[in-house]
């Protein structure tokens, strides 16, 4: 049972880290006009 809990905490940490980095990346890209130009070429 202890090992399962350890595994869960590890996965939770990875998940949280992924969410934080994902949000940071989205925030950075939102403030970059060239990203939108690549996304929606006129």
TrEMBL record:
<protein>
    <submittedName>
        <fullName>Uncharacterized protein</fullName>
    </submittedName>
</protein>
